[in-house]
Amino acid sequence: MDNFTMKDLKQLAESSQSPCATLCMPTHRSGKDREQDAVRLKNLADQIEKELAGRWLRAPDARDWVEPIRNIPSEIDFWEKRDRGLAIFLNGKSVQRFRVPIALSELAIVGTRFHTKSLLPLMSNSHFLILALSQNRVHLFEATEFQIDPIEVDGLPKQIDEALNLVSVDRGAQSHFAMRGGKGKETTVFHGQGGVKETHKDELTLYFRMIDSALQPVLRHRSVPMVLAGVEYLLPLFREVSHYSHIVAPEVRGNCDYLHADEIHEKAWQSVKSLLHEKRQLAFDKFQRLNGTGLATDDISQLLPAAFDGRIETFFVVPDKYSWGVASPIGRLISLHDTRERDDDDLSDAVATQTLLHHGQVYVLQQEEMPSKSIQAGVMRF
């Protein structure tokens, strides 16, 4: 499996070199259908070549342009490790390939932008954060049901001793002299580790405040649930100081210092999946309540500029249906068509991508699961 991350989505969305070719297809890890994957890939590459030669390039150049796609089955190490789906993004300058754990519908399309909607379930339907905390390690992850990816945080403290400059402090036995019995005799009172315990909560609180301060620029515009992972007595202390208002009740309790990220992910997903389903239902109900008020709509002509302006809070979309049209680079609608015409892109794909890039929530659903009869619907922030 190849992780498809927000960084990948941003890079594809910002590609300025046309034409942009997107190829998606289901693949098989085993079974008799596995042998047909190479044939399906070749047929889709042929479709891309035909579209390129019909509009963008001379026929010989189009043939050379798609050669990296045709060569993929000969890359034994890559091809033999297929998952349930394969997505390829090619613009003549670079090729990006993702073997993903979801079955993708066939798609072969060339346009002015890449089409990423099919991959968005990997980072949208079940999107949440995990903060793994201990006195020796701190890691922030973004996750979905299918994958987990680290988030780099500038200035994030990693160890309490280093953060509070406690490395050189003598935390062993300490003593002072005290008077006893009023008779002028001095006696020595040893505090040892008991003295450390008396101040340790204050040290942890200060340490967690430093962590929270480093996290605030990263979390400021996010509103997805965060699961805390760590030794049980540490987690309430962090909740007390955190400014992130979307920390959820489910936790991963226990020492995570020596767990692989995939192990933390599995434990976190089991604890949060029912809550995420409830969150989706609340978003669904909110659309139903606000539809027609100006704060919710299924009209692509309103959703498109709102997405580019960062005004969409929640977007629902069907992955294998399309809103064909032409838009400006800043998301202003130029034309809309019932069927695809020469210069068209899928505008619902653009809305979904921009919603995620502006920290909104996207739910990729089947038509019967949608909150309206349209293939797209959204709730506005304002």
Q: Please tally the helical runs, counting DSSP H or I stretches of 4 or more residues.
A: 11
Order of helices and strands: HEHHHHEEEEEEHEEHEHEHEHEEEEHEE
- The share of residues in helices is 25-40%
- Secondary-structure-derived class: alpha+beta
General shape: globular
Strand content: 15-25%
Q: Strand order, biggest sheet? A: 7-6-5-10-11
Distance between the termini: 38 Å
Quote the average pLDDT. Answer: 89
Major sheet summary line: 5 strands, mixed
Supply Rg.
27 Å
State the low-pLDDT regions, or none.
171-196
What is the tally of beta strands? 18
Report what the structure shows.
With 382 residues, this protein is α+β, with helices and mostly antiparallel strands. It is built from eleven helices and 18 strands. The protein has helices at 6-13, 37-56, 59-65, 67-70, 76-79, 160-163, 192-219, 235-241, 261-290, 300-308, 347-357; strands at residues 20-26, 85-90, 95-100, 107-111, 128-133, 138-143, 148-150, 175-180, 185-190, 226-230, 247-253, 296-297, 312-317, 324-327, 333-337, 345-346, 361-364, 376-380. The protein has a five-stranded mixed sheet, covered by helices on one side. The protein has a four-stranded antiparallel sheet with strand order 3-2-1-4, covered by helices on one side. β5 and β6 (138-143) form a beta hairpin. The longest helix is centred in the last third of the chain and has 30 residues, at 261-290. The two termini are 38 Å apart.
